[in-house]
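This follows on from our talk about sequence and fold. Please put the record directly below this note.
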Amino acid sequence: MEFNYQDYPFSSQRMTTFAKKGMVATSQPLASQAGLNILRQGGNAIDAAIATAATLTVVEPTSNGIGSDAFALVWVKEKLYGLNSSGPSPASISIDAVKKRGYKTMPKYGFIPVTVSGAPGAWAELSRRFGKLSLSEVLQPAIEYAREGFPVSPVTAAAWQKAFNNYKEKLKGEQFKEWFRIFAPVGKAPRASQVWSSKEHAKTLAEIGDTEAESFYRGQLAEKIVKFSEKHNGFLALRDYANFRPEWVEPISINYRGYEVWEIPPNGQGLVALMTLNILNQFDISDYSLADRYHIAIEALKLSFSDGKKYITDRKEMSVKINDLLAKEYAIERKKLIGEKAIKPMPGQPPKGGTVYLATADNQGNYVSYIQSNYMGFGSGLVVPGTGISLQNRGHNFSLDPEHDNALAPAKKTYHTIIPGFLSKDNKPIGPFGVMGGFMQPQGHVQVVMNTVDYKFNPQSSLDAPRWQWIEDKIVKVENNFPIREAELLAAKGHQVEIELSASTFGRGQIIWRDEANNVLIGATEPRADGSVAGY
């Protein structure tokens, strides 16, 4: 791919990074350096990704933790592999059991929305299958930061303060005391540049490394989690952890104007991005004005999201086939719904037939697109006493409507927001990309792909470009640097355009492309985060 690096269409405080031997791109500089150090020690891109992911549980706890889920796309020896390491709901939970506790919808906090954590299993499985170094070795940087402490970065400090204010108001009761002890040890959130540490977190990471995560699923760490759950009337049991295994899956893709765009199949929402791009494939974007291009992309996204929210759930329980949703014929039918004015989207019937993202690459042709998250910042608000393990709240996405595809059920994986992306062309890798941020993620993926393929933006410009976000019905939020004229033209088409002053709602992305002609890695990181690209 050829880009213009001199004439940036969008201003940025960051410049595209070039390197030859290896590269790590993350939302936190210390994590990037941790991954780069592993590369320098003889590790490969997979080792670097694990080291970076584990370090992010320490240096960016506002977005992820040891209790996260994880997904990865891994390019090794001319083949792309997919890893789904999201955990299921407890085997003892049910819609009736939750409703008997007085809930009409799944709660955000406490034990009810907690599902089995998949991240430690992802680290161990990636290390076992593709790593060069031991899991203990690649977890060492994270262990050291947790034990010795690190200075909190600015964006993380702001998110920490926001979470503290929210939790102080909403989290009452003994089960939440450990969160405040660990993450607000002096009665408040740490400010930027203050040093925070967690020796319990370090000890847990060491135990995960020494046992290759067995302790977390079939050992004393699992016992501590379950004991905590039982004490507070949770549904988790030892069998839920003992039965968990990360799942290798076949990535799904569509061809977008000559490029293969890859995602993880459901239960992740990467399918939404692919359905959107499939609809956009039916338009010749070059024939349209900039405002019309935005309009078409927003409408395509709305249609795809309405399908995604209806159909995406545990893949074994989806009522429609993935291939049917990605069929060209279905994309053509959905295209017919896009006119001059904004619509309220409805799901169709196809023909029958706060998250952290990181990217790594090495000089052996290996690439990793990796994402992990607790969901909604710190997650459930629960921290397992004496371990530093903050538990996710992914179960919040389950529906309590028994007729819904994503209805809560025992040992079921819910609709998942976190998605890694990958781009290739003619069976050759271009590289990993991703945009974190809840339901913004497929929207960010679509915009990054359009910026790259349709507009030929270089990686940094692709991330810098002002973003839009569909919220619901006809409501679309745009960043405060979004072109005013285009915003006005969108409003004239019936979109309810809202200018959002905060950049935090528009996702945070990373990109690593390979310039095959020069055999050079090209990295970019998000201006909306503390991110950095480390290379050598």
DSSP finds 18 helices and 21 strands in the chain. The chain has two domains: 30-248+356-385, 264-353+419-535. The longest helix spans residues 290-311. The CA atoms of residues 471 and 477 lie 7 Å apart.
